[in-house]
Amino acid sequence: MPSDSVPVGIHDLTFRTTSLQLTHAELAGHTGVPLAKYHRGIGQKAMSIPAPDEDVVTMAADAAAAVVGRHGADRIRTLVFATETSIDQAKAGGLYVHSLLGLPPHIRVVELKQACYGATAALQFATALVHRDPDQQVLVLASDIARYDLDSPGEPTQGAAAAAFLVTARPALLEIDTPSGVFTREVMDFWRPNYRTTALVDGRASIDAYLHALTGAFGDYRRRGGATLRDIHTICYHQPFTRMAHKAHHHLLQQAGLPAGPQDIAAALAPTTTYNELLGNSYTASLYVALAALLDSGTPLDGETVGLFSYGSGSVAEFLTATVRPGYRDHLRTEAHHAAVTDRRPVGYAAYRDLHGSGLPTDGSRYATAASTPGPYRLAGIRDHRRLYETNGPAAGPTAATTGTATDRGVPGEGEGGGG
Ligand code: COA
């Protein structure tokens, strides 16, 4: 039975990232760019760097395992994997997560793409499914690695993370409100042709397109009966670099004729940028990492309306709001989030450039990745054009029993090894 009266929203939210990081202090020490340009000009202090055996699947599986570990998988009927770092032209990355976690078979698994907007499309897709049948749950995974060419303007805005959230009826964290505002316009501000591993971006055009889409989506939201800016406690913006959120908030306030001083904007947005300024851009995950930061910030939000602005270059944007559930703080994962950020090992500039330059073979030849990640899942290698994943250390068990490990398939130790 369709049920519009049952509140639907985000019941659990978490994120994970890679095990390595490059600080902008280290980057500035070699590029000669003033550190203040990174710290203040773009608002970034560090960026997550994937180890050779980490990718969007291993990050997403790590985040998803936490959600499934807390709530079980019995009621999950759909798993949506949102990414613009797709590892296959045909097969959804979520299928590897499904296998690694040993999830039940009666789950539809699909991948969604529209640049950084994909996870918000997934959220709306999930919300509709749960309204139709409030007994079912939808697991949304947003996982991306932002890679630009070395020595390009985009380089300091690289990063990586995976967010996982469970969409349910009567959620513990946030109810998704209606209406939402959407805006679409075809524009070449950022794209990645299939033959490239790094994105192409016209940075200035992407800032303009983002602000143009914000005006369009927020205007649509207001015309459809959405709240005024004064009624929204805090807005989480998509953060390709955290200074972009400042530009966006300034833009909205100015258009509404509200005071838009830099100090006030910095104070309003600080709770939403604490993780992303250390992780870098995580494309689809970025907005949901910003939301996690806000919820974890200690700002009392019970019953408050928070705004979410999602922008995917190319471009599609959406502005929506959510109402924070009283008692939400009992369901947060603040400690795990701090650990994900602080446990990363720093890499030096030379090692970072080596990692950036290395890649998986594209001819299907047998290849073993160097064992590096301390995370629960790893990309062991490639054989016969297939990616081989395995559980890592103590987490091994149910996954190995379900899928067979890559070790069983004889990959590690064979092939060229190193890099990835
Ligand atoms: N101290 C403090 N700030 C400084 C500075 C210094 N020494 N030197 C420069 N800055 C400021 C600039 O004034 C500028 O601020 P502004 O944007 O408010 O004017 C900012 O730092 C960036 O400087 P800029 O010269 O424009 O940098 P850039 O040419 O290296 O490009 C980006 C910056 C963000 C455009 C670039 O990193 C990029 O393209 N990133 C990718 C964007 C993206 O991912 N878009 C797609 C998704 S929306």
From TrEMBL:
InterPro entries (alphabetical): HMG_CoA_synt_C_dom (IPR013746), HMG_CoA_synth_N (IPR013528), HMG_CoA_synthase_prok (IPR011554), Thiolase-like (IPR016039)
Top class in the EC scheme: transferase
Top-level taxon of origin: Bacteria
Domain spans labelled Hydroxymethylglutaryl-coenzyme A synthase N-terminal: 8-168
Entries under Pfam families matching the protein: HMG_CoA_synt_C, HMG_CoA_synt_N
Composition skew (Low complexity), residue ranges: 393-407
Keywords per UniProt: Acyltransferase, Transferase
Record EC number: 2.3.3.10
Region annotation Disordered: where it falls in the sequence: 390-420
Recorded GO MF terms: hydroxymethylglutaryl-CoA synthase activity
Residue ranges of every copy of the Hydroxymethylglutaryl-coenzyme A synthase C-terminal domain listed in the record: 180-253, 270-326
Protein family according to the UniProt entry: Belongs to the thiolase-like superfamily. HMG-CoA synthase family.
Protein name as annotated: Hydroxymethylglutaryl-CoA synthase
